[in-house]
Amino acid sequence: MEKFTYFYRSESPFSQWYPANFYIDGHQFNCAEQYMMYCKAVLFKDITSSQLILRTQTPREQKELGRKIRGFDKAIWERNCKAFVYEGNYEKFSQNKDLLQILLDTKGTSLVEASPTDRIWGAGLTEDDPRILNRATWRGTNWLGEILTELRDNLILRN
């Protein structure tokens, strides 16, 4: 039977909003959400938004700026967003050894974002909802959990 590691909210190191500094291409990011929204702005060539996102300190503000990116195309975003989230989390965990160990300690489980409201990045259910115990009854796709599980497994294979 499949075992799960559930997470939700910014207090979890697996959250996109968890505060963790890392660097990519000379830019400092304070959380994976900032990197994701920055990549979204760059993808759609909205340089003004990309610079604002880099200067914004909170994930809530970063996400809000990400919703306003000019030229946004959902189909293009969906083809690219998972790679951005993977890359941002790779750097977040690789550059923060304490967080890396927490991720590696989930070995043997599938990570699940137990967000009752997010049906794309999360499972669309809370951790205490019995439907979360079975993938077939999830209300969401759990993209973030899938990416983090893949990242962890890839990091284990490399070591």
UniProtKB/TrEMBL annotation:
SUPFAM superfamilies xref list: YbiA-like (SSF143990)
Signal peptide: none
Top-level lineage group: Bacteria
Reaction equations catalysed: 2,5-diamino-6-hydroxy-4-(5-phosphoribosylamino)-pyrimidine + H2O = 2,5,6-triamino-4-hydroxypyrimidine + D-ribose 5-phosphate; 5-amino-6-(5-phospho-D-ribosylamino)uracil + H2O = 5,6-diaminouracil + D-ribose 5-phosphate
Domain NADAR: residue ranges: 6-155
Pfam families according to UniProt: NADAR (PF08719)
Protein name: DUF1768 domain-containing protein
Organism the protein comes from: Paenibacillus monticola
UniProt lineage: Bacteria, Bacillati, Bacillota, Bacilli, Bacillales
